[in-house]
Amino acid sequence: MSRSKTGKVWEGRFRQRPDPEFEAFSRSVGFDFRLAPYELEVDRVWASALGKVGIYAEEEVRLVHAALDELRQLLQAGRIEPLPSDEDVHVLIERLLTEKLGPVGERIHTGRSRNDLVVTDLKLYLRDNLAETLSALIDLGRQLLARSYENRDVLLPAYTHLQRAQPVSLSHYLLSLFWALSRTTRRLRQWLELHNTCPLGSGACAGSGFAIDREFVARSLGFREPTGNSVDAVASRDFVVDAVHICACLMSDLSRYAEDWILWSTAEFGFLTLDESLTTGSSLMPQKRNPDSLELIRGKSARVLAAETRLQFLLKAQPLTYNRDLQEDKEPVFDALDQSLASIRIFTKAVEKAQWVGSRMRQALDPALMATDLADYLVQKGLPFREAHRIVGRMILYAEEACKPLPTWDLRDFRRFCDRVDHDVFEWLRPEFSVRRRNLEGGTGPEAVARQIERAQQELEWQLGLKAEFDSLRIAAQRPSS
Ligand code: ARG
After folding, report:
1. In 144-191, which ranges are E strands?
2. Whose CA is nearest to atom 7 of ligand 1?
3. If you take atom 4 of ligand 1, which residue's CA is the nearest one?
4. Are β-strands 197-198 and 163-169 bridged in parallel, bridged antiparallel, or unpaired?
5. Could you tell me if residue 17 is left (phi over 0), alpha (psi between -120 and 50 degrees) or otherwise beta?
6. C-alpha distances in Å from residue 190, one per residue of 123, 127, 186, 337, 416
7. Ligand 1 atom showing the smallest separation from residue 330 Cα
């Protein structure tokens, strides 16, 4: 048997070595090394599958498995070092296996391609990492729910156009993020539904040349079933785009709440104080305490949103099936998942430790915020809404121009604008009353919010079930070594 001269698995038909600058340019092991634990697990299953078609004798399958166990230990001990000639993680692991087992190692790549291998590894990697994202989301959801429960009686203005609009409970506001995030967990469920299929056995593009038991391979790796078309399997990366899209939706949500809280922690708003441990000082101005944790979440959302765009651009004009361009999918998806997970964790701490300043929020509940309630009041007295809107608009204008805020008005002041106003109007000017009027489904009324909290608890239960489902699919790659 001839030995490799260049360390390239494809060297046979080449006369020249690769240009060293190009070699470095094309090398992916620097970033796809994180797929190594999955590659080892895939190799284990592949060796068994090759045993079933007679490429390996039973004894050889055992040898491969033992060698993979050793490699896993070396990997966990941080003792695997790629050589400059190792193009990617697949070549690296094949080389190490071959160094241990000689010709037995050289047979591991029978009937497969790096094209189906890389998709399989990456799906497994994403499945495990999205499970981590889900876990972190559950922790954040729990925090939001606990804070919502505590702050049922605290009121603040809800804003539209960043202008004070109507009073809501802090509980209702915090739950709004809970529901946005719960849609992210639903997206994770959809990801699993759509993408938990096994590409291995698709070969380079036409399907393996050996009668591999693909059901066995799929099940052994925690996939629901084998992919149904080899061309689609090696060419498609929508499972990567979808994973990043989930992160992008999530980061866009976190970024908006971060923005609110950054504003709200200013002296001008003063609605909340961020915990000191999540803020930083200035190198120059001794008095400063800055909300950098939230600013960074807002900033990192740019990275994650850009990752989605980058992937869509990467894909859109590639001819089928596999092209080396696809190697460029990994850095954006790894980064998007890393940054999202870190952001969720930091945001969870911010939620856990934020101090809400009820008195400042209360001060911001300008009586004009009850203008809609006042119009509703006139509607109840029989006026068409448009007319009621006009009348209350005039009242507000007068209150502003005459510097006579609504709560200082007596009945005569009101009756100058509309003779149907009665003694009961004063109740309608209280923020608590405004909130209490809204107990319909999805409203900020206390009873509606209590029902929302109950539903959120049920949603958390559902999320824990989904987590258990993800966990049941975990393969040895992520289990701690015994
Ligand atoms: N490193 C490659 C990637 O990430 C693996 C697949 C290489 N396949 C090939 N035909 N060169 O896409």
Report:
1. 155-160, 163-169
2. 114
3. 327
4. unpaired
5. beta
6. 14, 12, 6, 17, 59
7. 4
Query: Atom 11 of ligand 1 has which residue's CA nearest to it?
Result: 324
Amino acid occupying residue 15: R
For ligand 1, whether the C-beta of 326 sits within 6 Å is yes
Q: In a 3-state reduction of DSSP, which class is residue 390? A: helix
Distance, CA of 478 to CA of 41 (rounded, Å): 10
Q: Which amino acid is at 369?
A: L
Ligand 1 pocket check for 322: Cβ under 6 Å: yes
Q: How many residues does the chain have?
A: 482
At 222 the three-state DSSP class reads coil
Over range 142-153, report the average pLDDT.
97
- Give catalytic residue positions: 161, 282
Does the Cβ of 114 fall within 6 Å of ligand 1? yes
pLDDT tens digits along 233-291: 999 999 999 999 999 999 999 999 999 999 999 999 999 999 999 999 999 989 999 99
Q: Which domains does the chain have, with CATH numbers?
A: 11-110 (1.10.275.10), 115-158+170-363+452-478 (1.20.200.10), 367-436 (1.10.40.30)
d(CA 84, CA 24): 8
Residue type, 251: M
Per the listing, tokens 């929020």 go with: 361
The answer for residues whose C-beta is within 8 angstroms of residue 116's C-beta and 6 or more apart is 199, 200, 201, 202, 203, 204, 208, 230, 233, 234
For residue 101, report the distance from its CA to the centre of ligand 1, in Å: 24
State the distance from the centre of ligand 1 to the C-alpha of 157, rounded, in angstroms: 54
**CB neighbours of residue 375 within 10 Å:** 22
pTM over 0.90: yes
- The reply to whether ligand 1 has any atom less than 6 angstroms from the CB of 321 is no
CA 396 to chain centre: 44
Confidence of residue 477 (pLDDT cuts 50, 70, 90): low
Beta-carbon count within 10 A of 422 CB: 12
Task: Give 168-222 pLDDT, tens digit per residue.
Answer: 999 999 999 999 999 999 999 999 999 999 999 999 999 999 999 999 999 999 9
Phi-psi region of 54 (alpha: psi -120 to 50; beta: other; left: phi over 0): left
Contacts of 471 (CB under 8 A, 6+ apart): 131
